[in-house]
Structures are given as C-alpha cells and as structure tokens.
Amino acid sequence: MKSEKAKKRLGILISGSGTNLQAIIDRSESGDLHAEVVCVISNKAEAFGLERARKHGIAAIHLDHRSCSGRGEYDAALVTTLQELHVDLVILAGFMRIVTPVLLDAFPNRVMNIHPALLPSFPGLDAQKQALEYGAKLSGCTVHFVDAGTDTGPIILQSAVPVLEDDTVASLSERIHHEEHKLYPAAIQLFAEGRLKVEGRRVLIS
After folding, report:
1. Which of 3, 54, 70, 121 is deepest in the core (most CB within 10 A)?
2. How many CA within 13 A on the CB side of residue 145?
3. In the CATH scheme, what is the homologous superfamily, with its name and number, of domain 1-108?
C-alpha cells in the first residue's frame, strides 16, 4: 500500500534532451514513484527536455546563465525559483554546469546527480571514454548526493554493466543509459520514502 503522505516535489535541472527526465516523469505518472516533477529548468532555451516538460504540463523554465554575472548569481536565481515552487529535492539530469555552495547550502543533502561510471572511478567528463581507454571490464552508473567536489558526493546507488571487447563510446553509453533510467527513479523513491541517511561519506539505506 502506498504512503498517504504528500508526494515529494522535484525540481529537475537539465541542459539537453532529458532522457533521464523522461524516465522520472514516466515513473511518477505511473505511480511507481511517490514524487512529482513540479518544474524543469534549463540554462539552454533549445534543450529538448523543456519540450518534454511542456508535453506533460510541467513548468518549463529557461534560466539563461549568460544573464548572470557568475555561477553564484546564477545559482541564487535557481534557488529563488526552486524555493518559490516549494521543491523538496533537486535533480541534476544532464545539467552541464558546476553548481556552487549557494545551491548546495539551500538544499543540504537534497541535490542528486547521476554519473555514467562506477564512482569514484572515472569522474568528470567523458566517463565512458575514460573507462574504455583504461581497459576497465566493468562500468555503470552512480546516483549520488552532490557536494562541492566533482562527482565526489556520498554514493546512494550504483549499477554495473560489462564493458565488451567491441564496445564503442556510443554502445557503452547506450547500455549505461538503460541502467540510469531505472536507477535514478529508484534512488528518488528511497528519498521520497525517507529511507536515506547521510553519515559522513556514507549513505545509509533503511
């Protein structure tokens, strides 16, 4: 039986097509995820994820980073918008900007990200390419809370995929994306159920 508590309110930040966004919307609308997407914000007006949001009646907001003097000012504008919409959890889904303490301090342990590697291996950009060049036999994806470092925040969930001998960046990315679309909603559901507790570097799941 599903909880009768109010659904957690999600604010999703994107810069591109928003395939993880779509997976989260689909799980929410099916009732498998006890959370609702109340806004999608992009720093790029042409991001297809904004169109995905509009198709589902979700507030689609373009907030141009070029209109701000720096990262801190931009994140302050994000915080204002997110707080006005009473967002409980901020989701980074292909948001190609480094967030600052301005956002993190406003939402402590309430900013999530997904990374296409098994952290702490291969942080930063081009993680799939890094894995192939290193000769890794396993790759995958990681959902973590965001901290001030680059992909260094406490790990919530991970899913592994094999790296095949004939893999390219594209083929490996496709298999990782398939796992991401399952893993991210699962991590959000744990948050919605109040089952995540951060203790130092670790996330405990009750």
Report:
1. 121
2. 22
3. Formyl transferase, N-terminal domain (3.40.50.170)
Question: Looking at the annotation, which residues are catalytic?
Answer: 115
Place of tokens 């702490």: 120
Superfamily of domain 113-206 in CATH is: Formyl transferase, N-terminal domain (3.40.50.170)
Exposed, middle or buried by CB within 10 Å (0-12, 13-18, 19+), for 149? exposed
Q: What is the pLDDT of residues 135-185, one digit of tens each?
A: 999 999 999 999 999 999 999 999 999 999 999 999 999 999 999 999 999
Nearest to 92 by CA among 80, 77, 110: 110
Q: Where in the chain is the domain with CATH 3.40.50.170?
A: 1-108, 113-206
